[in-house]
């Protein structure tokens, strides 16, 4: 017998409490939970704080823009010489953004989480048409800016384990400056 330790907080809401002995969370599920917490925190930090029932698609759009500051995808501005180049030869000062694919996946997870937390599908702000429009705009503008419309990215050359690479470096350059 496996005594599964449940860290899962009990949901008092929602009619069907069918999954009592829940298996360990999948990557998707734990990511969804993290996203949901992040979004909840974001709403709380608004002035005045926004409750979930007040939340509508504008809050979601603001949330998506807010997330851009943590993005890791270079999106060239129109004035940049590398605009439209998939592989710029030099760095530039264009901002980093959230890749539209990450945002798209995020919205999918939050949309599901909203309904799991008792939200009704009819009022689900994540399913709002305005979000879809926004995501499509982000997708199009990023595709243009980066010059990679719908082409698959080539797989990056795999690098050996960092430790190994480091060892090789040591072998190649045995004389280390003290
Ligand atoms: Zn640029």
From TrEMBL:
Keyword Transcription: yes
Compositionally skewed regions (Basic residues) per UniProt: 149-163
Name by which UniProt lists this protein: Protein LIGHT-DEPENDENT SHORT HYPOCOTYLS 10
Residue ranges, annotated region (Disordered): 1-31, 145-178
Domain ALOG, first and last residues per copy: 27-154
Any one Gene Ontology cellular component term annotated for this protein: nucleus
GO function term, MF aspect, one: DNA binding
Domain of life the protein comes from: Eukaryota
Main location: nucleus
Organism lineage: Eukaryota, Viridiplantae, Streptophyta, Embryophyta, Tracheophyta
Ranges of compositional bias, category Polar residues: 1-23
Compartment(s) of residence: Nucleus
Family: Belongs to the plant homeotic and developmental regulators ALOG protein family.
Biological process according to GO: mRNA transcription; response to light stimulus
Species for this entry: Sesamum angolense
Classification via Pfam families: ALOG_dom
Key words, A-Z: Developmental protein, DNA-binding, Nucleus, Transcription, Transcription regulation
């Amino acid at each position: 017998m496996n005594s599964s330790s449940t860290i899962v907080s009990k949901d008092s809401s929602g009619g069907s409490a069918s999954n009592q002995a829940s298996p360990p969370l999948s990557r998707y599920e734990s990511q969804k939970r993290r996203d949901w917490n992040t979004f909840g925190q974001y709403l709380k930090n608004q002035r005045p704080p926004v409750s979930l029932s007040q939340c509508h698609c504008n809050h979601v759009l603001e949330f998506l823009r807010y997330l851009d500051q943590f993005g890791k995808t270079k999106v060239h501005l129109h004035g940049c010489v590398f605009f439209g180049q998939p592989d710029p030869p030099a760095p530039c000062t264009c901002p980093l953004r959230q890749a539209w694919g990450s945002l798209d996946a995020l919205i999918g997870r939050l949309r599901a989480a909203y309904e799991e937390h008792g939200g009704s599908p009819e009022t689900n702000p994540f399913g709002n048409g305005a979000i879809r429009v926004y995501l499509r705009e982000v997708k199009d503008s990023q595709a243009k800016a980066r010059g990679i419309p719908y082409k698959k990215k080539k797989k990056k050359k795999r690098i050996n384990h960092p430790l190994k690479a480091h060892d090789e470096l040591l072998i190649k350059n045995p004389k280390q400056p003290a």
